């Protein structure tokens, strides 16, 4: 591969999936050229971003050439568009390690169901993305493949656990990527790196062939550079026609609840200002935005841990016998999960149902709830703790950035991150919309309405 292999001519800088589709349809680019550029960008960024755990250069180029040799009328709907895949998805012939040394040599013999679907849509997998070890953290600073970086400042964390996927999309290496979301793991890196991401309704997309974190909470999810791309990849993951139109939101008929309480009490003022500005954007577009009482789930983070970590320990029994191949922070979570008293665990499951009801009650009469995605912009990689309130901090490797995100997973409801703004230091700040069960279309429509109202266009940092 060489730099500058892609000559885009009059079509400009083709980076989103939609513009790639248009350029392919017009004959301005080939599948091979798009994949060559993605691979070249991946290699150029890798020394500072470390977004990839595996790159499949020969395999990806071979598939791209095969697509180019096929008549356009015979190609699948998304033929030739590059895709990054988090290292929890089984891809036949490749390791699935969750970026954990304890799973080295674990080679998949078949594709995960989600991989079968995206391959069927014509997407070309160029490799697996780096992540927080076995998805048990929200920084991607703990990984057997080395810590990940943020493309807007590689000395800062990308978030996690799907950090490599978020960084790869934000850097423009691929237009979209697959992650998984158990406690915010697609929304957090999207917020900290500056992309869109969707956690669908839990159970809507199959988890077969995924390395588990907590099976009752695990949820595959897409990250993308635009709302339209996000919707298209969501459709592909669901086994639906990727050309199914998103449609338009009718602002005058929409009501959005601005959730307070827990979702504002421990949030950086810079982030709160962005949440309020996003509410104003929707109001200006014609939506009704009203405050909603958010008190009553102050124990949500603890509840999530008491549900998630016992399942984590049950899902990874072999790691207890391979302690030398597991990071100490992960071992402590596994030990906590295994040691939790059954009565405490049962009480947490009961409390989870109450919290799920809490979110649904607050959605009554609203099309979505508006919240901050993370408590603060991306922290430096060497920061041990993140502040969640004056005088109160939590360890970064103990779901610090997931403080606000993981409670939503207890509800099972869909949630979408919007790359709403930037801090004075140029770091992305995300805002999330929480929707009703199976209303992913409604969330994506609101995201596109926000794009239209703000004139948003994705931008990418300069490559190293």
Please tag this protein with its features.
464 residues, alpha/beta, Amidase signature (AS) enzymes, 2 domains, eleven-stranded mixed β-sheet, two-stranded antiparallel ribbon, 13 strands, 15% strand, disordered N terminus
Shape by Cα distribution: globular
Q: Find the CATH superfamily of the largest domain.
A: Amidase signature (AS) domain
Q: What is the CATH-assigned architecture of the largest domain?
A: Alpha-Beta Complex
- Total DSSP helices: 14
Largest sheet: 11 strands, mixed
Distance between the termini: 17 Å
CATH class of the largest domain: Alpha Beta
Q: How much is the average pLDDT?
A: 95
Helix content: 25-40%
- Percent strand equals 5-15%
Largest sheet, spatial ordering of strands: 1-3-2-4-6-5-12-13-9-7-8
Low-pLDDT ranges: 1-12
Radius of gyration: 21 Å
In the CATH scheme, what's the topology name of the largest domain?
Amidase signature (AS) enzymes
Count of the separate structural domains = 2
H/E series? HHEHEHEHEHEEHEHHEHHHEEEHEEH
Structural class: alpha/beta
DSSP, total strands: 13
Quick gist of this model?
The protein has 464 residues and is an alpha/beta fold.
What does this protein structure show overall?
The protein has 464 residues and is α/β, with parallel strands linked by helices. The chain has two domains: 15-237, Amidase signature (AS) domain (Amidase signature (AS) enzymes); 251-454, Amidase signature (AS) domain (Amidase signature (AS) enzymes). It contains 14 helices and 13 strands. The strands form two sheets. The chain has an eleven-stranded mixed beta sheet with strand order 1-3-2-4-6-5-12-13-9-7-8, with helices on both faces. The protein is globular and about 60 Å long. The model is unreliable at 1-12 (pLDDT under 50).
């Amino acid at each position: 591969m060489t730099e500058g292999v892609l000559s885009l001519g009059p079509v400009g800088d083709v980076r989103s999936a939609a513009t790639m589709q248009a350029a392919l349809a017009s004959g301005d680019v080939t599948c091979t050229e798009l994949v060559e550029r993605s691979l070249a960008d991946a290699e150029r960024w890798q020394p500072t971003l470390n977004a990839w755990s595996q790159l499949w250069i020969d395999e990806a180029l071979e598939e791209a050439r095969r697509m180019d040799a096929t008549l356009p009328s015979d190609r699948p709907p998304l033929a030739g568009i590059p895709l990054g895949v988090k290292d929890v998805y089984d891809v036949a012939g490749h390791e699935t390690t969750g970026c954990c040394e304890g799973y080295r040599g674990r080679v998949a013999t078949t594709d995960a169901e989600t991989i079968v679907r995206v391959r069927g849509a014509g997407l070309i997998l160029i490799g697996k993305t780096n992540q927080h070890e076995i998805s048990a953290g929200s920084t991607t600073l703990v990984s057997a493949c080395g810590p990940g970086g943020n493309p807007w400042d590689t000395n800062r964390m990308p978030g996690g656990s799907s950090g490599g996927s978020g960084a790869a999309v934000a850097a423009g290496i691929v237009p979209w990527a697959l992650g998984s979301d158990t406690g915010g793991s697609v929304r957090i890196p999207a917020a900290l790196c500056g992309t869109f991401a969707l956690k669908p309704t839990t159970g809507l997309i199959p988890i077969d062939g995924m390395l588990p974190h907590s099976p009752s909470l695990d949820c595959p999810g897409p990250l993308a550079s635009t709302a339209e791309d996000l919707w298209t990849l969501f459709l592909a993951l669901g086994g639906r026609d990727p050309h199914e139109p998103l449609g338009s939101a009718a602002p005058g008929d929409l009501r959005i609840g601005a959730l307070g309480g827990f979702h504002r009490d421990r949030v950086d003022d810079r982030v709160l200002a962005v949440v309020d500005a996003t509410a104003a954007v929707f109001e200006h577009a014609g939506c009704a935005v009203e405050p909603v009482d958010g008190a009553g789930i102050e124990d949500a983070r603890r509840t999530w841990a008491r549900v998630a970590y016992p399942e984590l320990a049950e899902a990874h029994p072999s790691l207890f016998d391979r302690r030398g191949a597991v990071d100490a922070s992960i071992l402590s979570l596994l030990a906590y999960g295994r040691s939790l008293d059954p009565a405490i665990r049962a009480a947490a499951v009961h409390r989870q149902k109450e919290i799920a009801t809490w979110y649904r009650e607050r959605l009554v009469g609203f099309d979505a709830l508006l919240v901050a995605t993370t408590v603060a912009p991306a922290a430096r990689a060497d920061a041990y703790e993140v502040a969640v309130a004056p005088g109160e901090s939590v360890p970064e490797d103990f779901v610090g950035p997931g403080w606000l995100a993981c409670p939503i997973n207890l509800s099972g409801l869909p949630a979408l991150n919007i790359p709403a703004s930037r801090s004075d230091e140029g770091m992305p700040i995300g805002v999330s919309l929480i929707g009703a069960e199976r209303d992913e279309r409604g969330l994506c429509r609101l995201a596109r309405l926000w794009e239209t109202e703000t004139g948003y266009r994705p931008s990418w940092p300069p490559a190293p």
